[in-house]
Amino acid sequence: MDPTSRLRLSLGFVSTIVSMIFGTNKGRKNLLSPGAIEILYTSYFSRICMGDIAGMLEISPSSATDLVNYLEREGYVKRAPDLENRRSIQVIPTEKGEEWVLSTEEKIYGFLESGLSRLTPDEQKQFADLCARFSGVHDTASFTSSMRSFRETGTQNRIPLIQRRNGRLLRLEEVVDTRYAHHRETDIKEEHMTVKPRIPETSDGIQDEITVEQYDHMQRGLRDDGHLPVEELVRTTKPGDNALEIGPGPGYFGLEWLKHTTRTLLTGLEISSAMIRLAEKNSHEYNLSERVIYKEGNALSMPFPQKTFDFAFSNGSLHEWEDPEKVFSEIFRVLKPGGTFSVSDLRRDLSPEIYQFMLGSCQGPEIKKGFQTSVQAAYTKEELENLLQDISFTQVQVIAHPYGLVVIGEK
Question: What is the pTM of this model?
Answer without folding.
Answer: 0.57
